[in-house]
Specification:
- The protein has two domains: about 325 residues, ABC transporter involved in vitamin B12 uptake, BtuC (Orthogonal Bundle); about 170 residues, Orthogonal Bundle (Arc Repressor Mutant, subunit A), CATH 1.10.10.10.
- It is an all-alpha fold.
- The protein is elongated and about 100 Å long.
- Helix 6 runs antiparallel to helix 7.
- It has a three-stranded antiparallel beta sheet.
Length: about 500
């Protein structure tokens, strides 16, 4: 199967999963009966009773808040993934603040919270802010981050002024327009959820149809231009979808926190995978989970804000990925570094055993801990611990008295490989890099643990004579199959 077919197959699977989630959310919205009115409307009940009440989905405000939060989580997760890989995180923050004047103007159009009017006004304001950023970049010496900062501050200031004017109107205090600043999921109605569903569906479909184009323009814009793709058109298309996502998120999380919902789930997904289609799916799932958890936690208390809880939930997901991610997590990196340090310690001990045996012309097999300690310049207690580590990994055995160590065939092969790597690299540096023989030891000490078999074979092909290193010492030959020590090193195993 071709690479293009594989990409299309993965994209189709991801699209089907997202559309299934979307249809499930809409099913819950229109099939659950209604009872109460507000998400924070508490009676004298315990947290357990309140939690059970939430999961019955009987309150319409709970259903609207939950579904709206999950829909914007999906939408923000998908678009935020492209912002993260394009290194445009600040664009989402600037756009979220730039839409505020449009929200106010949309309200002033007919003096009520008409979702369509506010959506149109906010989208126009967001696109205008994006256009101003591009104009400043193209006509001045200002960098993108400076232009974004200017637009963020100026548009947000205009929005605050308009909001203040609205609050001074006779019905301004009851308009609820101030909830767009910090968000209030309890204010989400059926019309808002329907608008969120439409926008989320459009985002899913557009990304599915133009996934390859968005992928290429995000990672290699130069190549995309070379093959004739309209890079600017896809950039502005992404900005348009981003404006849509920002507008539908305002009602739940507000202007101040919407950028967090765009970036945090995508950043968590970015730490867990190196494949874009998986990142999109993970970011959508993380955003949806953050929305659901934020709505649940805000329902447990009286008048608790949904938006901040959503952001905190997304941050908790990011923290888990940051700490426990299998590849890029802090604990995983710590464990790999610890394992690598332990492996290097074992290999250095095997190398020291080889040097002790080489010094006595490979007469005898066992090496005493005293000899090994003198070679390693460590105490016998320290080398005893190292010998125990070799024994644990099947690289050596200990004599009954505990004072002598004997390497196994596996251990001897590894010892020969480390010594070979060290001396081959010294030979390469002196022959090819023309370094003095007394200046190559320290570099070889570091590289000997990193050379793979392919690199070693390449070194052997480039070097004419690989029998001795620059100091006249024999470079051991490591056999492909495991054998006894007497088979791998001439002279080893002879009696004294």
């Amino acid at each position: 199967m071709s690479r293009s077919a594989n990409i299309n197959s993965r994209t189709n699977r991801t699209t089907v999963r997202l559309l299934y989630l979307l249809s499930s959310l809409l099913y819950l919205l229109f099939t659950t009966p209604a009872h109460a009115a507000r998400i924070g409307d508490l009676s004298e009940t315990s947290l357990w009773e309140q939690a059970l009440r939430f999961f019955t989905f009987q309150d319409p405000s709970v259903r609207y808040a939950l579904l709206g939060s999950m829909l914007l989580g999906i939408c923000c997760g998908l678009l935020g993934s492209f912002l993260v890989v394009r290194k445009m995180a600040l664009v989402g923050d600037a756009l979220s603040h730039a839409v505020l004047p449009g929200v106010a103007l949309g309200f002033l159009w007919n003096m009520n919270k008409d979702p369509v009017a506010i959506f149109i006004g906010a989208t126009v304001a967001g696109l205008l802010g994006t256009a101003v950023v591009n104009l400043l970049k193209q006509t001045t010496r200002l960098k993108e981050d400076t232009a974004l900062g200017l637009v963020l501050a100026s548009f947000f200031a205009v929005g605050i002024c308009l909001m203040t004017m609205i609050q001074r109107l006779p019905t301004g205090n009851k308009s609820g327009i101030d909830k767009f600043l910090f968000g209030q999921a309890a204010a989400i109605g059926a019309a808002d959820v329907q608008l969120m569903a439409v926008v989320t569906g459009v985002v899913v479909v557009v990304i599915a149809l133009f996934y390859k184009e968005f992928l290429v323009t995000s990672f290699d814009a130069g190549f995309a231009r070379a093959v004739g793709l309209p890079v600017q058109a896809f950039h502005y298309g992404l900005m348009l979808l981003l404006a849509f996502a920002v507008v539908i998120a305002l009602q739940a999380v507000g202007v101040v926190l919407v950028s967090a919902m765009l970036i945090t789930p995508a950043a968590a997904a970015y730490l867990l995978t190196d494949r874009m289609h998986r990142m999109l799916l993970l970011a959508a799932v993380f955003g949806m989970a953050a929305g659901a958890l934020g709505a649940f936690l805000s329902f447990l208390g009286n008048n608790l804000p949904t938006g901040p809880f959503m952001v905190l939930a997304a941050t908790a997901v990011f923290a888990a990925a940051f700490l426990f991610g299998p590849r890029h997590g802090v604990l995983a990196r710590w464990w790999r570094q610890r394992s690598r340090a332990a492996r290097i310690q074992r290999e250095n001990t095997l190398k020291a055993i080889y040097h002790v045996l080489e010094a006595r012309n490979f007469l005898g097999e066992g090496v005493s801990l005293r000899e090994l300690a003198e070679r390693r310049r460590e105490t016998e207690e320290e080398v005893a611990a190292q010998a125990a580590a070799l024994h644990t990994h099947g690289l050596a055995t200990l004599h009954d008295d505990g004072n002598h160590i004997f390497v196994t065939p596996d251990g001897w092969q590894r010892a020969c490989a480390i010594v070979r790597n060290h001396r081959l690299w010294e030979l390469y540096l002196t022959n090819e890099a023309h370094l003095a023989a007394d200046h190559v030891h320290e570099d070889a000490e570091k590289i000997e643990h990193l050379l793979g078999e392919e690199t070693v074979r390449e070194l052997e092909r480039r070097l004419v004579n690989t029998k001795q290193d620059p100091h006249g010492k024999t470079i051991p030959v490591v056999p492909i199959s495991l054998g006894t020590k007497a088979e791998t090193t001439p002279g080893y195993g002879r009696s004294a």
